[in-house]
TrEMBL record:
The lineage of its organism: Bacteria, Bacillati, Bacillota, Bacilli, Bacillales. It comes from the Bacteria. Residues 7-169 form the Glycosyltransferase 2-like domain. InterPro entries: Glyco_trans_2-like (IPR001173), Glycosyltransferase_2 (IPR050256), Nucleotide-diphossugar_trans (IPR029044). GO terms for molecular function: glycosyltransferase activity. This is Glycosyltransferase family 2 protein.
Length: 314
């Protein structure tokens, strides 16, 4: 029987200090496995010696593949590029800063052999700043209550994907990628392995506080239209309240006469129109939202198994 191929996908951006060490640690874990392997480095437009390090490795070792992007497109895009060009029967996605311990590869591969399509290495938050821990707990509570996909803290990109999972991910070709949501969206069987948080080996994290906030917003926006709906409902509430207010004040005026002239008419028209405007914005929002979803061109479904071929119109 032909040996299966395992692809390791590593997006790197300014990681010159870590490439060689990463390679050595990977080899240590990969060579005892009953798999052929390829290591795919994606240089995400690094401005330091990262690419040179990779090229030097690729020259010496056949198992090293690489893609170099024309500029820094971000980790999500780099991963996508990598997934498109690997040939493995399964792939493991890892960071290039040794925060994802290669020692877990053995366990992940075992999960794959047991038949799981996704084997996720879930990291604990030990060593993270208290405040960041608190924010992430709150964030995930909120996201899970308003979006349609399940996201879990600590379950990031460090995971093994079967060929089927890889192909499913490749079908989601939207340009604004929120991969945590995508892994959850495709479904398929999943096994979780836990590990202790590790701090970066060298270089610097590319996440600033602002990046994290943006990432958080992406997480909410790319998986539902509920924020738009908030507008719609607020409009209804304001409209309802303004009608109640107008009714009561009108009754007062009829029974007790006008207090301050002009006040009633001004306030009631502002409230009433405000309500109507918010509702209209909500309606427009719904349409924009639909268009937004369509432009992503996500497939409407993914087939698990079927005994019928796709029907071609004659
Ligand atoms: N990375 C990338 N492109 C980017 C930013 C990061 O390919 O624009 C890579 C980076 O080299 C590393 C991984 O993505 O291998 C994770 O990045 P980082 O360590 O900065 O994130 P953190 O671990 O702090 O979440
Ligand atoms: Mg890191």
């Amino acid at each position: 029987m032909k040996m299966k191929l395992l692809s390791i996908v590593v997006p790197v951006y300014n990681e010159e200090a870590n490439i060689t060490c990463m390679y050595e640690r990977l080899i240590e874990e990969l060579s005892p496995l009953p798999f052929n392997y390829e290591i795919m480095f994606i240089d995400d437009g690094s401005s330091d010696g990262t690419l040179e390090e990779i090229l030097a490795l690729a020259e010496r070792f056949e198992g090293v593949k690489y893609i170099s992007l024309t500029r820094n497109f971000g980790k999500e895009a780099a991963l996508f590029a990598g997934l498109k060009r690997i040939r493995g029967d399964a792939a493991i996605l890892m960071d290039g800063d040794l925060q994802h311990p290669p020692e877990l590869i053995g366990q992940m591969v075992r999960g794959y052999e047991e038949g799981y399509h996704q084997v996720v290495a879930k990291r604990s938050r030990t060593g993270d700043k208290r405040i960041r821990q608190m924010f992430s707990v709150l964030y995930y509570k909120m996201v899970n209550s308003i979006t349609d996909v399940d996201l879990a803290d600590g379950e990031g990109d460090f995971r093994l994907l079967s060929r089927k999972a890889i192909n499913s991910i490749l079908q989601l070709s939207e340009s604004n990628r929120f991969s945590k949501g995508l892994y959850s969206w495709i479904g398929l069987s999943k096994k979780i392995i836990s590990y202790e948080n590790v701090t970066r080996a060298g270089g610097q994290s590319k996440w600033s506080f602002g990046n994290l906030v943006n990432y958080g917003i992406d997480g909410i926006i790319s998986f539902n239209l509920k924020p738009l709906r908030v507008c719609f409902y607020t409009g209804f509430v304001i409209l309802f309240l303004s009608i109640v207010y107008i009714g009561i004040t009108f009754y007062d005026i009829m029974t007790e006469g006008i207090g301050a002239p002009g006040y009633f008419t001004t306030i009631s028209s502002i409230l009433f129109l405000g309500g109507i405007q918010l509702i209209s914005l909500g309606v427009i929002g719904e349409y924009v939202g639909r268009i937004y979803n369509e432009t992503k061109r996500r497939p409407n479904f993914l087939i698990d198994i079927s005994n019928a071929e796709e029907y071609d119109e004659p």
